[in-house]
Amino acid sequence: MTDLFSPAPMDNILPYDGQVHDLGLVIDYPSPLFYNLVTELPWQADVVTLCGKTHTTTRQIVWMGDEGIDYRYAGHVRQTIPWTNTILSIKQHVEQQLSDIGIEASFNSCLLNYYPSGDDGMGYHADDEPELGAQPLIASLSLGATRKFVFKHKKTQDKVALNLESGQLIVMRGDTQTFWKHSIPKTKKVTEGRISLTFRRILTL
Ligand SMILES: O=C(O)CCC(=O)C(=O)O
Ligand SMILES: [Fe+2]
């Protein structure tokens, strides 16, 4: 279903210096999927080092990916676990949705984030690690509670915000990570959990 006010998938959400597309709701029954993933996956607190201090987050993560792929960010090496059937079929569905609008993707890893409530968030960062390449293509699928997603330009500080609903798919590409940071702000208004599946391609040399 489309209405006059929903953006076309190829519209660019960013005004300049990058490309973000909103593919809308792409999952028919997101809530059983959300509860399955909350219960079935081996969630672990994330460990982040900022300014030399190591913190464990209340946000929970799982790294999944092809065999032999591991990933390092914020100074830590992440071990990946093999694809589950569920996540592999979501990955194929996401790749198909992208292909339908002319974006060819073949992801080899996925960082899953679980935010148990609005008390959990993710601070401003760019996914600009060298192993993601110069212009990373990152697809993000949301499940569960609606949360605000905010982009902030690194130089101009301009902000662009959108709400991400259960079953909604967005994709970041081009220069987005070079020029913009993004975050999931904490909020007192949300008491329910949310999961994001962020599909990426890690370059192996
Ligand atoms: O939960 C989200 O939608 C954002 C996740 C994110 O930025 C990341 O995993 O790098
Ligand atoms: Fe990110």
UniProtKB/TrEMBL annotation:
Which GO biological-process labels does this protein carry? Answer: DNA alkylation repair
What GO terms are given for molecular function?
broad specificity oxidative DNA demethylase activity; cytosine C-5 DNA demethylase activity; ferrous iron binding
Locate the residues binding 2-oxoglutarate: 113, 115, 125, 182, 194, 198, 200
Q: Provide the Fe2OG dioxygenase domain boundaries.
A: 106-203
Q: Which residues bind substrate?
A: 71-73, 128
InterPro entries, alphabetized: AlkB-like (IPR027450), AlkB-like_sf (IPR037151), ALKBH2 (IPR032852), Oxoglu/Fe-dep_dioxygenase_dom (IPR005123)
What name appears for this protein in its UniProt entry? DNA repair protein
